Amino acid sequence: MRLEGIAVSSGIAVGTAQIMLAQEIPVLRVSLPQEALAGEIARLQAALRDTVRDVEALKDQARAKLSEDFLAIFDAHVVILKDPTLLASATQRILQEQVNAEYALQGAIQDMVRRLVATEDSYFQDRAMDLEDLHRRILMHLAGVAPQQAGWSGRERDVILLADALTPSETGSMHNAPIIAFVTEHGARTSHTAIIARSLEIPAVVAVKGLMAWTGSRAS
Amino acid sequence: MIRREALICNRLGLHARAAAKLVQLANQFQSQVFLSTDRMSANAKSILGVLTLAAGKDTPLTVEVDGPDEEQALDQILALIAGKFGED
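Structure tokens for the assembled complex are given below, as produced in the milestone run.
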């Protein structure tokens, strides 16, 4: 079996493959009575504030290790979370559709992702992935669960991480992990995985078609 | 209200980091700031709006500022764009 992708950071690494599966958080549509809507908006605002705090904390943790280029991505995320159009769009959905904050937020984010992907520019399309990542963090705060950092027991050695795609916050918290290379099914030369791999000076291959199907067949 | 033309001249265009700098700057002023390409217009205080413009290298932009500190805002925004957002 031969799989090919784009080498975004060159080098050679030999280690143990570890597969990282994406966390999916299901979003339900809940119809709410009129008097509950103000509370939903407040809940959404609080979750956005908490997510801003998370991102700032991630940036602080990564400060010593990562390049200015990568750190600036966290600033971009803070600006996204504070964007008046995101809150306005989600708030409007809560009020008009009389629904829960999670469902309204999902609609607002999906709308924005569609608009970014429509720009037909790979750099901007990567921002669509940033939004998915931030979306997951906001949902965790709405659910009252603190977003988890990638957990490493300390026993792992020389891990080659295989994933469908890595989110900016996943890559941003990886400088402490024993990872010596990345391989992802998605991504591009300008994606975060590529930037962080170059920043950490470890090899990375992205856009490997069929990677997850292949790892799935090997695992079973 | 004042308005000026500008050209995006950094290699990567108005990508997330450059757009974030521009939005952070626009948010420091009371004035309303709008950016337009030949296709659409966006609130410069909204990162999503600015990213949706998808202004790559060599895109001409119209910067429109309206408010009490419009001259200062326009000067600084034009300087940021002309200075390639501190990149390349």
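Chain A has two domains: 6-22+151-219, 34-142. The mean pLDDT of chain A is 83. Further analysis is deferred to the final report.
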